[in-house]
Amino acid sequence: MDLERIEAAVKEILIAVGEDPERTGLQETPKRVARMYQEVFAGLENDPTVHLKVFDEGQDEEMVIVRDIPLHSMCEHHLLPFVGKAHIAYIPRNGKIIGLSKFARIVDHFSKRPQVQERLTSQIADFLDENLDPVGVAVVIEAEHMCMTMRGAKAAGSGTLTSALRGSMRSDAKTRAEVMSLLRGRI
């Protein structure tokens, strides 16, 4: 990531909006923004497969659900954050599982790049489907977008819900109904 170039661009933005980048409160802002971008866009440079340590737990093919995984990402349309939670369910095939904390790391990885929520949801589902070969996988993300809260519609508190279903989670109506009910918190 080219931090110097980001700093120069931020300085230009400050000038363009009518600010003085040399005033006391703004002197370090370009450096801070560059470091922040390096952190929030780290998913552009990292490999998500580092989070895949697969365990063999025998023939168990029961549904596993991890809910309320915190996420924050940057909307690629306005470079404003969206913040929310991801919920993931999968049915292992032949007992092939990963540690539960890895789901949070995978969500974090794909969130750390300019994104739209729809693509983020699909990327996580596709990654798990391709790398774990589960019987089925479901990813549901709920988030609030600052581009809707701070500008345009100014619809503070509105939420966006997206889902991506793969394998039996998509093809089997009973499994789909069960997982969607569980992901929404109803047992």
Automatic annotation (TrEMBL):
Zn(2+) binds at residues 75, 78, 147. It is an enzyme of class 3 (hydrolase). Its EC number is 3.5.4.16. It catalyses: GTP + H2O = 7,8-dihydroneopterin 3'-triphosphate + formate + H(+). InterPro entries: GTP-CH-I_C/QueF, GTP-CH-I_N, GTP_CycHdrlase_I, GTP_CycHdrlase_I_CS, GTP_CycHdrlase_I_dom. Signal peptide: none annotated. Residues 6-183 form the GTP cyclohydrolase I domain. It comes from Vagococcus humatus. Homopolymer. This is GTP cyclohydrolase 1.
